[in-house]
Every structure is written in structure tokens, then in C-alpha cells.
Amino acid sequence: MPFLFFFGIATATHLVSTFFINLPLLAYAPYLSLVFLKRPLKNLLWQSLFCGLSIDILQSSLPFGYSALIYLIVSLILYKQKWVFFHDKLLSLAFFSSLFSLLHSLLQILFFDLTKKNLLFSWKTLLSELLLMPLGDGLYAFLAFTLPYLLYLQVKQKGFRFLFMEKLR
């Protein structure tokens, strides 16, 4: 089941990167956040490696393995902090995805010198990379993972008909 979930997200990531080129979401952040909360470190590192390599396949501007390395480092840093988050809280996945995105952006800025590319620092760059992107990834995690899960729970509990029926009061 996790591999089916991974390939579904991979397909969605490839489609989003094809049609919405300027949308800078970390599509694997919610998936890896679920892996953080539910699986041991060994599984997390393998999943992070595969997610990073699939991102490396999509991009040609950075050296191959760069995203995989950053995903692995972020995973190692965040795994030690998973005790802070509750598995059953609705916003844990969105918050953890935002934290993953924030650390990813920080490491990417710090390691950008390794790619021998010039990065111009400005307030606009810092605002977009360290505030707006993590918030966007958290919103993406909430809309794409938490809300469908809540809908699934409602359908499972009340049946499919509750979606189309209104109370007459």
C-alpha cells in the first residue's frame, strides 16, 4: 500500500511540474511527513532517498543527487523531533510538512554554493523561501491529504448519501 501511495504522489508531482512550472511546492513533504509519523528511521531514509531521486530526475539545473542529499539530511534532522507531534491531531501533518519545507529551504540556501550558482539574497527571496513556501506546503498538505481523509472518515461513518442530503431545519 505505501508503494501505491508513493507512486500516486509521484505521478501527481510529475503532472504538476509539467503543467504548473512556476508552482514551487515540495510535493513529497506531506508523504514524508506521514512516513515520519508512522514508520521507523530505516524506512524513512529509503523513502526520502527515492523521493529526492525522483525530484532529481525532474530537474536539470542542479547536480544529480542534490535533492536526495537534502531530503536525507532534513529527514535525519526531523526524525529526532517527531516526539513533539501528535499522530491524531488534524494539523500535525500540515505543520510537519511546513517544517519539512522550511528546513529544506534553509539547507538548499546553505548548500547552494556547492552548485557553483550565484544566489542573490534579498528580502523577497527570504520571504518567499522561508515563509511563503512553507506556508504553501502546509496548505497543500491540509487540502490534499487531511481534508480527503476527513471526507473518507465521514463517508465511512455516515455513508455516501450524506454528501447530497441537507437537513431541513
Give a brief description:
With 169 residues, this protein is mostly helical.
Keywords for this entry:
single chain; 169 residues; mainly alpha; 6 helices; 0% strand
Let me know the largest β-sheet.
Answer: none
Radius of gyration over alpha carbons? 18 Å
The pLDDT mean sits at 79
* Structural category: mainly alpha
Structurally, the number of domains stands at: 1
Whole-Å distance between the termini?
A: 42 Å
Strand content: under 5%
Q: What would the principal axes of the Cα set say about the shape?
A: globular
Q: List how many beta strands DSSP finds.
A: 0
Q: Can you write the helix and strand succession as a string?
A: HHHHHH
- Tally of alpha and pi helices: 6
- Percent in helix: 55-70%
Stretches where pLDDT is under 50 for at least 5 consecutive residues are none
Q: Can you describe what's shown?
A:
The protein is mainly α and 169 residues long. The protein has one domain. The protein is 68% helix and 0% strand. The protein has helices at 2-19, 29-38, 41-58, 66-79, 92-110, 123-158. The mean pLDDT is 79.
Secondary structure topology:
Elements: H1 2-19, H2 29-38, H3 41-58, H4 66-79, H5 92-110, H6 123-158
Helix pairs in contact: 2-5, 3-4, 4-5, 5-6
